[in-house]
Structure formats: C-alpha cells, structure tokens
C-alpha cells in the first residue's frame, strides 16, 4: 500500500491510498491527484539527514568517505509536497538538488539494534534535500545551507516496505534530463545501520524521516526547472522551481504541524 495525505475539494485533510491506477482513494471516494492538494505524506518532528553516504558523491565533492554516518537536521519548516512550487533563497548563486531515499519511522524509538530496525519502519518515500551551497560552505551547522523554508520536498506517498526492493533504484531528473541515477544498494551505511546509529543519541518519533544521502550527479537549479525524484516501489515526487522573488513566499499552513 502507498499511503497519501491530501486535501479534498471540500478542504478536509484525508489519508488514503495512491493506487496503481493513479487514483487517490479515501473510503469509497476516488480523486484525481491533479485535482486535489497533495500534502507531505508524514508530519515529522524532524528530518535526520545523512551526508556523504554514496562513494561516488564523496568523490565528486572531493571528500573522504566518513568512518561513521555524518548527520544533520532539517526542521518541519523545510517540508514541501509533491506538486509544490519552491522559491529559491534570495541572493544565492548555487542551490543544488539531492535525490534521497527517505525512511519514515513508525513508532517512537531509542537504542534500536540493527537486527530490529525493520520493526520501527513505517515505510519509504522520496526526498529532495535542497542545498544552498553558498552558505553551506561558510558554516558548520548548515542552518542556512540546509534548513531554509521548503528545503525538503517529500512524497508523494509512504510506501509499505514490502513493495520496495532492497536494491531499489533512485533517479532524479531536471526538465526530463537524468541527473542522478543509482541504487540504495550503493549506500555506504545501510538503513539498519543508520537507524541504530541515530537512535543511540536521538529519540525518533512516529512520522520522523531519515534522508539517507544522495548519489553523485548533483547540480544547480534555476528558475523554471521541474525536478522529479523517483524511487522504485514508491513513485515519483515532482516539484517546480522559481527564482527568488518570483513567488509570493507566503507561509502555506498546510505544512505546519497541528494545522
């Protein structure tokens, strides 16, 4: 099953199923995905991101392969959804795409051993870890570089783990051109290793997301670009990009917790 959150034409937020026929179902009702507002499929308290978790990406950035997972956080303010239009941060020369395999946590957990990691996984999703390189290169904590508003498009669904292959393909296109293409089989640190390492110090809550790192092929985004992240067994997360100042920038309360 692929669970989806959306706002129906009456304005009610629903959690339903995205079927193989590209219909959204809630009970006996059916909806066209293009005629509703698709929401982020989870409402995380945090997104735990992993840096340099593909050897080829470490190589393209002239970085050493880490001895342990490199971790940083994105807050709920970074959420964006399938179909959204995202405004680039103002005054920045380079904002890159980063396609990532997202792990959605199903229950509050701490100190999870690797051999029990599957027990705390609700499912998998697509993530685009948008990255403002101008500021990322200037600071250690990466708030400006990684945690600006709408810097984490997620979705369109949370797919049941049994439908996602262990070597699931991950691909990103910009305007139809393939930029990133790899497999989660190429992760340096596996999903069980990441869950075990993260939960040694951090309690993960139900709905939290682990963004497991990006393959090689990162490149800058520009006004007018359409980005699509596809994970085998999950589906495709698509969103548009506009230049700074081209979008209203108004807060969209769909993505705020408890709304």
Automatic annotation (TrEMBL):
SUPFAM superfamilies: FAH (SSF56529)
Residues annotated as domain Fumarylacetoacetase-like C-terminal: 46-241
Key words, A-Z: Metal-binding
One function term, GO molecular function aspect: isomerase activity
Gene3D superfamilies listed in its UniProt record: Fumarylacetoacetase-like, C-terminal domain
The organism's place on the tree of life at top rank: Archaea
Region described as Disordered: spans on this chain: 1-25
BP GO annotations: carboxylic acid metabolic process
Pfam families: FAA_hydrolase
Protein name: 2-keto-4-pentenoate hydratase/2-oxohepta-3-ene-1,7-dioic acid hydratase (Catechol pathway)
């Amino acid at each position: 099953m692929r669970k989806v959150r959306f706002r129906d034409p009456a304005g009610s937020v629903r959690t339903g199923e995205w079927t193989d026929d590209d219909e959204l179902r809630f009970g006996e009702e059916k909806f066209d995905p293009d005629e509703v507002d698709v929401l982020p499929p989870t409402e995380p308290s945090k997104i735990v991101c992993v840096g340099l978790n593909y050897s080829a990406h470490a190589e393209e950035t002239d970085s050493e392969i880490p001895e342990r997972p490199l971790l940083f956080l994105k807050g709920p303010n970074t959420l964006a959804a399938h179909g959204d239009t995202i405004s680039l941060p103002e005054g920045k020369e380079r904002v890159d795409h980063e396609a990532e395999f997202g792990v959605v946590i199903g229950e509050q957990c701490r100190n999870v051993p690797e051999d029990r990691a599957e027990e705390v996984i609700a499912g998998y999703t697509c993530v685009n870890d948008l990255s403002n390189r101008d500021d990322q290169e200037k600071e250690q904590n990466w708030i400006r570089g990684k945690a600006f508003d709408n810097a984490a498009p997620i979705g369109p669904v949370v797919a049941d783990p049994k439908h996602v292959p262990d070597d699931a393909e991950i691909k990103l296109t910009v305007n139809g051109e393939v930029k990133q293409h790899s497999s989660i089989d190429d992760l340096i640190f596996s999903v069980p290793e990441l869950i075990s390492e993260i939960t040694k110090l951090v309690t993960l809550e139900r709905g939290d997301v682990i963004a497991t790192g990006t393959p090689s092929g990162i490149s800058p985004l520009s006004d007018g670009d359409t980005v699509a992240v596809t994970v085998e067994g999950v589906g495709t997360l698509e969103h548009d990009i506009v230049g700074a100042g081209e979008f209203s920038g108004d807060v969209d309360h769909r993505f705020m917790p408890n709304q």
